Amino acid sequence: MCKPTLFDLMKMPRGGRLFLATCLGSLFVLVLYFQSITKPGKLLGSRNAPTIHQAGLELLAAHKSLQGRRELLEQACLSHTRKRRVLSPEDLKHLIVDDMHGLIYCYVPKVACTNWKRVLMVLTSDGRYTDPLAIPANEAHVAGNLRTLSEFSVTEINQRLRSYLKFIFVREPFERLVSAYRNKFTRRYNTAFHKRYGTKIIRRHRPNAKPEALEKGDDVTFPEFVQYLVDPRTQREEPFNEHWERVHSLCHPCLIHYDVVGKYETLEPDAQAVLRLAGVEGTLQFPTSGKTTRTDGHMAGRYFKHISPFYQKKLFNLYRMDFMLFNYSTPEYLRT
C-alpha cells in the first residue's frame, strides 16, 4: 500500500483532518511527558516540586543517616549514569501505591518486602486488616491486593511521582543473592522454582547430570547458580527473576527520586521512620523478624568460599551498580 501524500491528506474531510491532528498532538504530549518524568528536578520529587509531605520531609532531615543515603545516591547516579531513558509501564510494576496516605513503595524481594506488603495492605484496607502479621505471607503476594503505579494513567503517574512520599529498602547485594538462593533452591517446597529454573541450570551447567536431577531440578549448587547468573545467554533469553534481579533494575533509583532509602541492616529504625513520616506510627508497628538463620555477611562468605576468583569477579561486575549506588563496600571475603 502506498503512503498517503500531502495532497491525499488535503482531500480528507475536515472532520477526519481534525481527528488525525488530535491523535498526533496527544502522542506528542505523551512523549514529552515520559521524557520529562526522567529528569530529576522536574517531576521526580525535586526540592522545588510541591509536596503534600513537606512537614514529613522536614522531619526526615532530622534523620541524618537517611538524609545522607539520599545524597550519596544522588551523587552516585550523577557519577555512574551516563544515559537517561524513558520509563515504561513495565518499569513501574514494582512500585506499590497507597493513595490514602500518599505513599509509593518499591518492593525488592528478599528485603523484607513481605512485611512491607502486609503493612500496606493494612493501610489501604479501610479497616479490613488491622494486624500485619495476621495476613498470610502468600496472600501478601497475591496480584491485585495492592495497586502498582503501572496501573494508572500517565497524568495520574505524574501526579503521584511528584507529590507522594517515595521509599525503597535495599540490602547488601551478595547477602540478598545468597538469601534468594537458599530460599528458592534449597527448600524442598519450592518445586515451581526447581522446575522453572533448576532444571535449566542443571542442564546447562552440570556435565553428565543424572536423569533425576534433570527432571526435578531440586539440587542446584550455589556455584551452578552463579554460573547461570553470569552466563551471557541467561539475560539474552529472558530478564532475571525479581528475586535476583539488581535493585537498580527493579526500582530505577536514578530515574525516580526516592525520599527515603532504607536498609535491611537497619530495618527496624528505618521502617519506624517511614511510618512516622506517613503519619501512621501510632496505629501499627512494622513486624519484627523472628528468623534465627538470617543470611548475613558470615553466611554469604561461606557460600562464596566455593566460588573461584574468576566467577567472583564476574558476579561482582554484574552487581557492581547496586554496590555503588547504595554505598556497600566490596565484601572482604572476595578473592578478586
TrEMBL record:
Its EC number is 2.8.2.-. It is found in: Golgi apparatus membrane. It is a single-pass type II membrane protein. GO terms for cellular component: Golgi membrane. Keywords: Carbohydrate metabolism, Glycoprotein, Golgi apparatus, Membrane, Signal-anchor, Transferase, Transmembrane, Transmembrane helix. GO terms for molecular function: sulfotransferase activity. It is an enzyme of class 2 (transferase). GO terms for biological process: carbohydrate biosynthetic process; proteoglycan biosynthetic process. Belongs to the sulfotransferase 2 family. This is Carbohydrate sulfotransferase. It comes from Neolamprologus brichardi.
